[in-house]
Design brief:
The complex is a heterodimer. Chain A is of the alpha/beta class. Chain A is built from eleven helices and twelve strands. A seven-stranded mixed sheet of chain A has the order 2-8-7-6-5-3-4, with helices on both faces. The two termini of chain A are 30 Å apart. Chain B has a six-stranded antiparallel beta barrel. The mean pLDDT of chain B is 87. The chains are: A alpha/beta, B alpha/beta.
Chain lengths: 382, 385
């Protein structure tokens, strides 16, 4: 049975071109980038090349890129590192109420240590409005974190508007761009972003690598000690194969962003229309237009999401319910709850995220199977 | 296992233990299409408890490893609500009613052959299998799953022709048929017990032959949701009224003389001799518990003997006439060797059991199971006197 993968928000397969560069790094460029000899220098050159590739996708300087083990570490470094590194700037932070667990729990951890945290509410479409953030600002606010796009429903925020508003107020702005980096244009300068998280394995790069953009002049306290890598901000010998993979993945995204965005938007619209043409009582969650290309969060009334996911998996179709990080627990997703869904609706919600490898044919088959399985599950529940 | 591969998929309840793992493995070896399900029933309190009894993460991990080895899909089903409602709440309320419950019986009928089976069916499974030591047979005496009968069962959505029988497992020392009496009869035709034909020793041998990672895993013997099998502490922690002494009362002897006070009648069970708090000297046994008066009755061993008792909430797995003519065997607890008995219907909703010899510590709330040879013909809950 052929398998169809439509869970790209959870992770992505490594692009063959990325794999090539990773293997080359593992075999030919094995030196420690901190060594002074030729092996080290060659490795260092690859590290810096990757750094440049990332920075050009953000329109920022390469020095502002700090490599990490992934998006979660970048989020933690941003929140906890910024607050610890700027004690004089205030002891209040604002995060949205629909952030990824990495941001959500880093904020809770700060709360345990005496930092006050306000959660600004997204609207029912998952949009976090600049006004909603502004309303929560106090004289003691030092940092705001609002994700660029939500991983569960796909809604994209106008982070430029938020960033500009915060820059005027002199409050630092972090955005978790794990779901948008490489997919939607981001200009760190123009959007007045101070800190930005990104991850390799969401853009067809290997797992275990990511980065935190830190605008020049912004102080972040290190959380790892033991060396001077990444300007002392994230010490330890660099995961060069991962980083090289991330760089190459970013490069490939840069070259295809516009076309891929159009293609994925078209494919997901097609999937949605197959589903809607054949099933009643299906709701698309999130903003109808401002979404990550290829992302569909759908609530199927009258079925259990868990059962549908299993049924689809038995047919070779991979999707998810809520975020991958929270699967295994069957509490309703706090994000879906924050968007106003009842527990029942949240439990009937699935996420389909299309990607580079999905073809029109695959989407047709996926749509067919989804329709068939939903009908069958609905019939059994009657 | 003399099974022919069947087009329908078989859902196996897998706890990560050796019995359910071997059950799945035998079905896969016979060429069936198998899907493993781990049931999330309860949240364990600590890792130590989690390792020994039911913690989903540990179970799912172990079952997942076995499924990966067997090359079959593995899913976790969250049945906590059903379990809480049908098993845990009932367990608690039975003790408060002065009875001693068998939670495993209701877990089987209401959760495994209930909620789990419903979900499995919704996912297109045709059969349910577990690692229980028990057997299912067709009246012809063969394991019912001849290819023809299985096809029939699956096509018609009805039990394959003839009445299916629930039997003890071959290994008498491991037989678990006692806990299965409440399974609705019509589901027997959809049930497979792959290890019922084997001894425990043979099961472990199969596990080692197949190099299953759980081959030497320790047995879990306790009630899965009670840490350290300490139901008293569990009850006390869940019922502040119990801890506060609202259910306390008197311990009295056969003449009605008060011997001592007790701190809560749910903490006692019929036949209990230890932990009565009476000091040395004469041996007393709990002979009855009266929740209305909160009295715990004590007596001698001879006062525990009975030859007649009633069952409520009974389930008939076979046609038989409860008219005292047939001599059957009754077990009043899991580890009971069983005594011969006759059965009579009493009103529409009770069975009256007459044992040929006295049985001791007939405990309201416990299951009594009736056998005709190896076959389970009926079961029910022992009623208070």
């Amino acid at each position: 049975m052929s398998r169809i993968y439509i869970d790209h928000a959870a992770t992505t397969p490594v692009d063959p071109r990325v794999l090539e560069s990773v293997i080359k790094c593992l075999t030919d460029q094995f030196g420690n980038p901190s060594s002074i000899h030729a092996f080290g220098r060659e490795a260092k050159a690859e590290l810096e090349r990757a750094r440049e590739l990332i920075s050009s996708l953000l329109n920022c300087s390469p020095e502002s890129i700090c490599f990490t083990s992934g998006g979660t570490e970048a989020d933690n470094l941003a929140l906890i590192g910024y607050v610890s590194g700027n004690p004089a700037r205030g002891r209040h932070i604002i995060v949205s109420n629909i952030e990824h667990p990495a941001v959500r729990e880093a904020a809770s951890e700060l709360e345990n240590h005496g930092i006050s945290v306000t959660r600004a509410a997204a609207d029912r479409d998952g949009v976090v409005h600049p006004d909603a953030v502004e309303a929560e600002l106090t004289a003691d606010t030092c940092l705001v974190s609002v994700m660029h796009a939500n991983n569960e429903v796909g809604t994209v925020n106008d982070i430029g508007a938020i960033g500009r508003m915060l820059r005027e107020r002199g409050v630092a702005f972090h955005t978790d761009a794990v779901q948008t980096f490489g997919k939607i244009p981001i200009d760190a300068g123009e959007m007045c972003i101070d800190l930005l998280s990104l991850s390799s394995h969401k853009i067809y790069g290997p797992k275990g690598a990511g980065a935190l953009f830190i605008r020049d002049g912004v102080e972040v306290a290190a959380r790892h000690y033991g060396g001077s890598q990444e300007r002392g901000l994230r010490t330890g010998t660099e995961n060069l194969p991962g980083i090289v993979g991330l760089g190459r993945a970013a490069e490939i995204c840069a070259g295809s962003m516009a076309d891929e965005s159009v293609r994925l938007t078209g494919l997901s619209r097609h999937l949605l229309s197959i589903i809607r043409d054949n099933l009643a009582d299906v709701t698309l969650n999130g903003h109808p237009e401002r979404r990550v290309p290829g992302s569909l969060s759908l609530t199927f009334e009258g079925i259990e999401g868990e059962a549908l996911l299993i049924a689809l998996d038995l047919e070779g179709i991979a999707a998810s319910a809520g975020s991958a990080c929270s699967s295994g627990s069957v509490k309703p997703s706090p994000v879906l709850t924050a968007l106003g869904m009842s527990d029942e609706q949240a439990h009937s919600t699935l996420r389909f995220t299309l990607g580079r490898g999905n073809t029109h044919r695959e989407i047709e088959r996926a749509g067919e199977v989804i329709v068939r399985e939903v009908n069958r599950l609905r019939a059994m529940n009657d | 296992m003399k099974l022919n591969p069947h087009p329908s998929k078989i859902a196996v309840a897998m706890s990560g233990g050796v019995d359910s793992s071997v059950a799945a493995a035998l079905l896969v070896e016979s060429g069936h299409r198998v899907v493993g399900f781990t049931l999330k029933l309860w949240d364990a309190e600590d890792e130590e408890h989690a390792r020994k009894v039911c913690c989903t993460a540990v179970m799912a991990r172990d079952a997942g490893r076995v499924c990966a080895l067997l090359g079959i899909p593995h899913y976790t089903l969250d049945l906590r609500d059903d379990f809480r409602r049908e098993v845990v709440a009932r367990f608690e309320s039975e003790y408060i009613a002065g009875r001693t419950p068998n939670p495993c019986v209701h877990c089987n009928s209401k959760v495994k052959w209930g909620a789990m089976w419903q979900k499995a069916q919704a996912l297109g499974m045709g059969f349910i299998a577990t690692g229980h030591y028990a057997r299912i047979e067709s009246p012809a005496g063969k394991p019912f799953l001849s290819l023809k009968k299985m096809n029939e069962a699956s096509r018609n959505g009805r039990p394959a022709g003839g009445t299916m029988r629930l039997l003890r497992g071959i290994d008498r020392s491991k037989d678990q048929s006692y806990f299965l009496w409440e399974i609705p009869h019509e589901l027997l035709a959809r049930t497979i017990f792959p290890v019922g034909e084997l001894t425990k020793h043979e099961v472990r041998t199969v596990a080692r032959r197949l190099k299953l990672p759980v081959a030497d895993k320790a047995e879990s013997q306790e009630v899965c949701f009670i840490p350290r099998d300490d139901y008293r502490s569990w009850l006390l922690s869940r019922r502040p009224d119990l801890a506060g002494g609202n259910l306390s009362g008197e311990m009295i002897d056969t003449r009605g003389v008060k011997l001592a006070d007790h701190s809560g009648y749910p903490l006692f069970t019929i036949g209990q001799r230890k932990g009565l708090g009476l000091g040395g000297g004469r041996k007393y046994y709990v002979t009855a518990i009266d929740p209305a008066t909160r009295k715990v009755h004590l007596g001698d061993k001879v006062d525990l003997a009975r030859q007649e008792f009633e069952l409520t909430d009974f389930n008939l797995l076979q046609d038989f006439m409860p008219d005292r003519t047939e001599s059957l065997e009754v077990k009043i607890r899991y580890r009971d060797p069983g005594v011969s008995a006759r059965v009579q219907k009493n009103g529409g909703d009770k069975l009256r059991i007459f044992t040929d010899e006295p049985v001791y510590a007939v405990t309201p709330g416990q299951s009594a199971v009736l056998y005709r040879g190896d076959e389970v013909v009926a079961g029910g809950i022992i009623a208070p006197r």
